[in-house]
């Protein structure tokens, strides 16, 4: 979908059409959820601090997010997808992979299917979508951004290598800023440079990931569209108005535990056989250092209060000085297993908790 949240706001409020719309709460700790294309011309992007967005575009119209409406629009779009295929892998409210190798409609090609879907979205939701058509997921993902907004871009099988060759290596999935810098040290800026290094050199330098990089450089990706991706974690987090020490965040942790528990209960209704065994505490310091602490107790948390107690208790496993200030906290549950497996693991670990500690930036 094109600038999805902002587009929903502009659709529902004619006064916002043509205006630089920023979907975000105002405040020094707020971040941009979405920006209309009018706002993007000024450099405003999602995940940007709202105060920076306001500096870049002082006349922007700030609109607080309304996820109830966004989810309703997303369901409409999903229903349109389902007329064409059952092989749908949602990535978020506004993005999904579709396998249209065989369709319910009998349309003659993937391109025709993509166009039909875009036409239906425009007619039925009064929103626009962009589509990428390609032989596999990662090439289709890149292609979907090619003609935004309201665009369609097709990469046929024989065009894949030529399409990828001039692209910056950062466009490949899994190549973030750190890997991009490591590749730059080797003189690799674009996909064609990556190919020139060869599979052996990449594997010697980066191990199995090097082999994967070589495959991606040639557009090789056999990952299927997965219609039912299992939930791996359910979490809630919040950014404070001012930085706080750990000793002052208990009320916030308990409120976040309540949100996470509600989400967990919804997941249990959808998949009653799957249990979350691990409790996760996420922290972001005032200098943007991210830490997580997790605990797998002998028995999975059985109530909101128990989840909150475990999350609050994880603060004791943070080794930073008590004077350290934090800008964000989060509470999550993870380690999903089938219920009978959870019972077996509870018997195995009865008498002692398993503590898992992760730390990073």
TrEMBL record:
Q: Where's the UmuC domain?
A: 1-176
Name the SUPFAM superfamilies for this protein. DNA/RNA polymerases (SSF56672), Lesion bypass DNA polymerase (Y-family), little finger domain (SSF100879)
Keyword Transcription regulation appears in the UniProt entry? no
GO terms for MF:
DNA-directed DNA polymerase activity
Identify the cofactor(s): Mg(2+)
Q: Where is this site: Substrate discrimination?
A: 5
Compartments (UniProt record): Cytoplasm
Q: Which InterPro entries match?
A: DNA/RNA_pol_sf (IPR043502), DNA_pol_Y-fam_lit_finger_sf (IPR036775), DNA_pol_Y-fam_little_finger (IPR017961), DNA_polymerase-Y (IPR050116), DNApol_IV (IPR022880), IMS_HHH_1 (IPR053848), Rev_trsase/Diguanyl_cyclase (IPR043128), UmuC (IPR001126)
For this UniProt record, the keywords arranged alphabetically read as follows: Cytoplasm, DNA damage, DNA repair, DNA replication, DNA-binding, DNA-directed DNA polymerase, Magnesium, Metal-binding, Mutator protein, Nucleotidyltransferase, Transferase
Active site feature: 95
Coarse class of the primary localization is: cytoplasm
Which CDD domains did the record assign? PolY_Pol_IV_kappa (cd03586)
Reaction catalysed by this chain? Answer: DNA(n) + a 2'-deoxyribonucleoside 5'-triphosphate = DNA(n+1) + diphosphate
Q: Superkingdom, according to UniProt?
A: Bacteria
Q: Looking at the keywords, is ATP-binding present? A: no
| EC number, UniProt record | 2.7.7.7
**Described function:** Poorly processive, error-prone DNA polymerase involved in untargeted mutagenesis. Copies undamaged DNA at stalled replication forks, which arise in vivo from mismatched or misaligned primer ends. These misaligned primers can be extended by PolIV. Exhibits no 3'-5' exonuclease (proofreading) activity. May be involved in translesional synthesis, in conjunction with the beta clamp from PolIII.
Q: Which family does it belong to?
A: Belongs to the DNA polymerase type-Y family.
The record's annotation in NCBIfam families points to:
PRK02406.1 (NF002677)
Quaternary structure annotation from Swiss-Prot or TrEMBL:
Monomer.
This protein's name: DNA polymerase IV
Which source organism does the UniProt entry give?
A: Lysobacter gummosus
